[in-house]
Amino acid sequence: MPTIIHARYTLYKGVALDDLAVCVDGDAIVDAGALSDLIARYPEAERAGGDDFILAPAFTNAHDHGRALGTMALGHPDSFLEIWLSHLACLPSIPPYLVALYSGLQLLQSGVTAVAHSHNPISWSALAVEVPESLRGYADAGMRVAMHPPIIDQNQLVYAERNRFLRQLPAELRDEVGAADAIDLSVGDYFAILDDLYQNFHDDKHHRAHIQASPAGGQWCSDGLIIRACEWARRHRTRVQMHLLETRYQRIYAYKTWRLSFVRHLDDIGALGDWLTLAHMVWVEADDIELIAERGVGIAHNISSNLRLRSGIAPVAKLMAAGVNVGIGLDGQSMDDDQDFLREIRLAWTIGNQSGMGAADLGAAAAWRMGADIAAKITFGPRAPLGQLEIGSLADLILLDWEAVAGIWAPADFPPQELLPEFLLRRIKREHVRRVMVGGNWVLQDGEHKTVDISDVEREIWQRLRPLTGGQPSRLDAHLRKFYRGWDK
Ligand SMILES: [Zn+2]
Fold first, then answer.
1. 354: part of which helix (H) or strand (E)?
2. Fewer CB in a 10 Å sphere around the end CB: N or C, the chain?
3. Fold match flag (3-58+389-449 vs 59-380)
4. Homologous superfamily of 59-380 in CATH?
5. How far is CA 295 from the centre of its chain?
């Protein structure tokens, strides 16, 4: 039975329209137009929505790690990325299924129906087991996922000059750290695992799961590994996602290693292309932006994470103005540790507009699209019909509570329709998401999950965490700080 979904306003490519309804049949949008026309064409259809709602395409979280709980809640506070990362190994581990299930349920509550999950392995050698468990968790939540099983083959401890770093450590720490910074997963085994995962889970028809290659970060991967990942992805018509230029020290690493910017080096080895999404890019050189646009590289922007981990602010308005596709991701580090994607779009938009009359503008319509169709494009590729309210698109959409968003601020004739996207973006929160549809099925109704009780999942996570010790805090903090301060000179 088809369903006609209509609303007071519909956001179409970030613009508010007052008479755009959609008709959903199966897992896709089969028709779109004025409500009266759709009723005439589908008299038997069910109806959902109404004047109390805003209809919008669902969001894609373009870069995350599915942590479920913020690291702060587990006893490891925010710090510089290089210091904070050294704490990750000390965190208590929650089974990947539960983590993905909980993360998926949280994201659906803020209207996100698809996520790029950059997996943080509990054990590298168990990657082949952990990833299917994680995929199962997202599937049970009702989410789409672009899965990024990671691989690194260098510089795990510090970006370069490992021996200099080890020499500055006290002897007992030097031996311990020096013996423990290799991973027990070879590049060959990684690609064999990736082949298996692709065979078993990659779905380029309904786009429930994509398997993509993920050399985890420019400085952690050799050129050979990055090139092989790009070749693998192109051969399988899938994508590569990689962290790049998140911190100033990653930028310095590139100049120390090649006397070139990271972007120029990656271009030299043939890694830049429309198959690639780079997460962060806070420290991208202004001179490289045109090249990134030309190569069709996507960028996942993670403003909360970049602020919390003291990385800086990416030049998103400049990137968008140059024609780079920039999508928004939470990186498991949202501002309030609650995975509220709507606040994340607001932050990206607000902070994206920088000072100076000559600065590029980042408009509200662009910000909506960075959370929806652009994020979907850089996550699932241009062929995946996601993030849009178009005929033929997969039916992933949300209904927002108009009265709750509007409050006392919006009498009947205000705001003017052309300002509505901006008005919504300034005020909207997760609590305003009332209904969420994924592939033609309502998975969230009145703000509640239809098939899973999120409080049961929370209870299970806390029961498993209680007997765990929480690990030992990193003893490397001061040494890492001293080491990288040397790079600032
Ligand atoms: Zn990340």
1. none
2. C
3. no
4. Metal-dependent hydrolases (3.20.20.140)
5. 21
- Smallest Cα–Cα separation from 371: which of 337, 339, 345, 399? 345
Q: Which residues of 454-463 are buried (b: 16+ CB within 10 A; e: fewer)?
A: beebbeebee
pLDDT, tens digit (0-9, with 9 covering 90-100), for 297-307: 999 999 999 99
Residue, of 6 and 406, whose pLDDT is higher: 6
CA 479 to CA 404: how far, in whole Å? 50
Q: What is the pLDDT of residues 198-229, one digit of tens each?
A: 999 999 999 999 999 999 999 999 999 999 99
Looking at domain 3-58+389-449, its CATH class is mainly beta
DSSP, collapsed to helix, strand or coil, labels residue 22 as strand
**CA of 212 relative to ligand 1 center, distance in Å:** 15
- For residue 218, how far is its CA from the centre of ligand 1 (angstroms)? 12
Contacts for 419 with CB less than 8 Å, ≥ 6 apart: none
| 302 CA distance to ligand 1 middle (Å) | 8
Residues 6+ apart with CB under 8 A from 149: 119, 127, 131, 190, 193, 194, 197, 211, 214
Q: Residue 410 corresponds to which amino acid? A: A
Q: Is 81 helix (H, G, I), strand (E, B) or coil?
A: helix
User: What's the gap in Å between 82 CA and the centre of ligand 1?
Assistant: 13
In the chain, domain spans: 3-58+389-449, 59-380
Predicted confidence at residue 441, as pLDDT, reads 97
What are 258's two structure tokens? 């090649």
Look at residue 92 in the predicted model and tell me its pLDDT.
76
